[in-house]
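User: Please predict the structure of the protein below. I'd like the answer in structure-token form so I can feed it into my own downstream comparison script.

Assistant: Understood. Taking the following sequence of 345 residues as input:
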Amino acid sequence: MPSITAPAIVLVTGANGFIAAHCVADLLKNGFAVVATARTEAKVLTTFLMHKHHPNLSVELVPDITAPGCFDEAIRNCDAVLHLAAPFGYSYSNFEKELLIPSIQGTLTICQAAQKTPSVKRVVLTSSFASVYDASKGLQPEKTYTEEDWAPLTYDDGKNAAITPIAYRASKLLAEKTAWDFVKKNDVKWDLVTLCPGMVFGALIEGTINNLKSLNTSNGIVWSLFGAKDIPDTKAPIWTSVTALAAAHTKALTTSEASNQRFLITNGEYDTQEIADILHASPLLPQEAKKRIPVGSPGKRLGGTHYKVDNSKAGRILGVEGPKLDDTVVELVQQLLSYEKEQTQ
């Protein structure tokens, strides 16, 4: 199908979230009109404020993304969709109710809404490396993951998981498969693109959170170094720049060759020792802040001890490049330290 170009109208679900806020900002910067959705009136207002009431932004209230027809009004007259509304975190009491159903059903409802909307030509789904990675096989230093790989998890694996990361990986996998299955089983007039990032790091759009307790899970990995006695374990050693990911969403719309493709959007490997080393070495951070970060074993890296990721397809087709890990985490920490200072005043 042809590409989607500005000033097309793009629906962005879950628009007040960390990644989605960057996607909205990138779309607006590139001349698109955006219809955003948020789940509460407060988040509707927050979304407007984050983008300074941009004239090309409207925000619709969608309280329950699993409700049949919930996106029908918001999607009207839209040319494309970025679907980002989904749970992400590590604190849940009922995996089926809080992770699996919202992820899967939310994806189904957006596909159904797109199917009923003749103007929609492309749907971009934000998936995850979690839907690619097979944790059951361990670190596999000899393995290189590509878009052809799929996690082997089932619905029951997620529902009955012993730990949250398994349930989360199942939710992302099953949500993405729901979208691809919908395209295969229905006579759709739009095409699908799925993006699979690693751990997403980067400064937040101002207003995304109102306190550090609300910090998103991936950036929380960086912030967890502060006050830690030892270097925390690395949860997943592949990272993605949030600005590169937002640009990839826009490119997934504007690039005709992206049609019905799956992409790994990654910027490289990382580990928490490396982040600690970067922060200690940065001349942009105050010494008092550095004292709160454990030293660990400077220079020690996980590289060579775990799987790799081949992101060449995204580079070749979407042409997205991102900032370095150093710049990304230092900018983030500068922002978080300023938030912390504001909260203590």
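That's the full token string. The chain is about 40% helix and 15% strand.
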